[in-house]
Amino acid sequence: MSMSLLGIVFGIAFFVVTQAQTSGFEVFFIRTILGTNGAIRVSDRFQDMEGTVSKVSQNGSESFVFRSRENARYVEGVEYPQLVRVALREFPEVSGISEIIEGTAILDSGSRKHAVQIHGLRIKDHIMVSELQNQLIQGSIDSLDADRSGVLLGSRIADRLRLSQGDRVTLIGGTENQQLRVAGVFETGVSQIDKSRIYLDLSTARSIVGKPFGSSLFQVSIQDPEKATEIAAQMQETLGYRVVGWQEREKVWLEVFKALRLSSAITVSSILLLSGLGMFNVFAIMVIEKNRDIAILRSIGFTPRDVSAVFLWQGGIVLLGGIILGSAAGCLATYGISKIPLRIRGIFSTDSFVVNWELSHYLWAIAIATVFVGVASWIPARRAAKIEPAKIIRESL
Amino acid sequence: MTEQSQEDRAPLIRAEELKHSFMEGESPVHALRGVSFEAQTGDVTAIVGQSGCGKSTLLYLLGLLDRPESGEIYLKGHPMAKASNEERTALRNESIGFVFQFHFLIKELTARENVALPLRKSGVGESQALDRADDLLDQLGLGEKTKRFANKLSGGEQQRVAIARALANSPSLLLADEPTGNLDSANSENVFKLLMQFAREQEIAILLVTHNPDLAERCDHCLPMRDGLIVSPGES
Ligand SMILES: Nc1ncnc2c1ncn2[C@@H]1O[C@H](COP(=O)(O)OP(=O)(O)O)[C@@H](O)[C@H]1O
Ligand SMILES: [Mg+2]
Q: What is the predicted ipTM?
């Protein structure tokens, strides 16, 4: 029985710890991508204009009409940013709108060259839709805002070209070159971004990319990022532009995390299953060993229910002990693990294990343990209740 | 006899044409072939007969541990054969006490805890039940050993604990299946005397299966059995 208790304690603790980790990394990843590429992105106008005006008024109340966009073709970029911006402001959930011009260029430090992705934007707008302010490891938002020829470099570009704040660089575009000054360095933790992206002023970017009108996309933040999918769908219908929420954009990674979380839950549940099996075994043997005692109790007036209660009680006590000790152990282990140094760069950046404290992990662990222990004690308890006292007494004489 | 005493002598338990059989492989073994008798409160009735004649089977039917194939059992005038399991279980607790040849104590419990079991089941509080257990064990000469574990007692002592447990709820019927069969003559005598004493003092009807003709002789009645039948019900 003590083995079963130990198994339940371990099972619950492991369950909690693994869930805290996998969901911790998942939450951290979501925070990173929301802080970098935002909740919603508006890009590429639909070519067919059918159904783009879908906000209809009926009896004075406004509603949205949704149409399938499966076979739609796109025109790249946002042609009339002013109109889109006005339309986006109509959505009450929107908390920030940043207009972005994208393009590619070569960054030349004088001694080395590096291909970069240009993100031209209005920095004051962009900090409303991202965590850029917190991602800065050198320089400041204000220094970029004050200087039209300022540029923020991804950390790995800065490393590669050995650049730091204040250094002069040349940006070689398709149409013209620009002399720029490094206003700061940022690190998102997403290595693909850190080694290719640079932020600079919208109008500076326009002239380098050679795109005097229009823009590439809008990055939009909303009050409740969980609602991004449905709000994006509404925006898409209203604007006639392709609008994608972060859940769809990062679908692949989110599914990887989900699979990871689920598979670790299943793996760890097997510890609980094994302790349940062990417990079942102990109880099943106990019913056979104690059948004389059970027959005595029945002969002096204890009911089948009284007899099964003995087993259910024992199971319940082991379960309760397992839950209390297991949750405590899981809690401690989660705390301990969050202090373990671990350097991760790639899809996010962290220097220690990331954990997520979530009551539901404990509740799930408890629920799974309860089911296994419940079955493990209920079946033998039922068998014990069915023992016929006369038969046992007759046989043991 | 006056009318009053006749009413007093109404049977506590009455068996009517009890039949019972077991399947042994394909063929049935007729353990009881139609047993009828009655017993009054305060009487000690011996059931004697060769091994295999159906004595234990009869006792289990009367003790509501098993149901007869046919026939009826009246306990205090109420038919029992088809009573619900709940009713029969409750009656086992309140009105019937069992003593078996092998003492059937729960060895993880002390003497007093064993004796207190039927009381606890019938809803008596723990300390009260243990007090009553101590009391009974004292009457049975085990006052010193109430806190011993059951398996730390001698055979005769264990059997006395079993009797105390059977008597704990003041039953009106005590069924004893060879209670002295496993004891030496001194202990047998002791246990038998105690049973007689309780039958007299507490108005309990006792049915006693025994192989000891000497003890059977000293009972109020004797039911000799052979092949599942009572051969000549008579008084000793
Ligand atoms: N469970 C059983 N299965 C088959 N036959 C049984 C069973 N129990 C008792 N019997 C048979 O029933 C008959 C009566 O048994 P029992 O009442 O135990 O006799 P006694 O107690 O007088 O020795 C015997 O022939 C015995 O073999
Ligand atoms: Mg027998």
A: 0.89
Q: Which residue has the tokens 């990173």?
A: A32
What tens digit of pLDDT does each residue of B30-76 get? 999 999 999 999 899 999 999 999 999 999 999 999 999 999 999 99
CATH superfamily of B10-230: P-loop containing nucleotide triphosphate hydrolases (3.40.50.300)
Nearest to B104 among A292, A306, A394 (CB): A292
- Please give the Cα distance from A224 to A207 (Å, whole number): 36
Q: Which residues pair with B74 in a beta bridge?
A: B14, B79
Phi, psi of A102 (to 5 degrees): -105, 155
Among candidates A293, A299, A394 on the partner chain, residue whose Cβ is nearest the Cβ of B56:
A394
Query: Given an 8 Å threshold on Cβ–Cβ distance, is A300 in contact with B94?
Result: no
Tokens of A180: 């720029």
Distance separating alpha carbons of residues A140 and A182, to the nearest angstrom:
11
From chain A, the residues in CB contact with B86 under 8 A are 303
Distance, in Å, from the CA atom of B16 to the CA atom of B77, rounded to the nearest integer, reads: 12
Q: Which residues of B touch A302 (CB under 8 A)?
A: 89, 93, 117, 121
Helices marked H in chain B — which ranges? Answer: 3-8, 55-62, 85-94, 111-121, 126-139, 155-167, 185-202, 213-218
Q: Which residues of B touch A296 (CB under 8 A)?
A: 104-106
B121/A302 touch (CB, cutoff 8 Å), yes or no: yes
C-alpha span between A81 and A176 (Å, rounded): 24
CA of A394 to the centre of ligand 1 (A): 8
Residue A173: which pLDDT band, with cuts at 50, 70 and 90? confident
Residue whose CA is closest, atom 13 of ligand 1? B31
| pLDDT of B164 strictly over 90 | yes
More confident residue, B176 or A71: B176
pLDDT of residue A73: 64
- Domain ranges across chain A: 2-30+269-396, 94-222
Whole-number Å distance, alpha carbon A333 to ligand 1 midpoint, is: 62
pTM for the structure as a whole: 0.75
Does residue A211 carry a pLDDT above 90?
A: no
Structure-token match 């970017």, residue found: A205
Which residue's alpha carbon is at the smallest distance from atom 2 of ligand 1?
B22
Give the best residue of A289, A308, A393, A394 to mutate against chain B (max B CB count within 10 A): A393
Pocket of ligand 1, beta carbon within 6 A: A 394; B 22, 24, 29, 31, 49, 51-57
Rounded Cα gap, residues A283 and A295, in angstroms: 17
Of A178, A242, A240, nearest in space to A43 by CA = A242
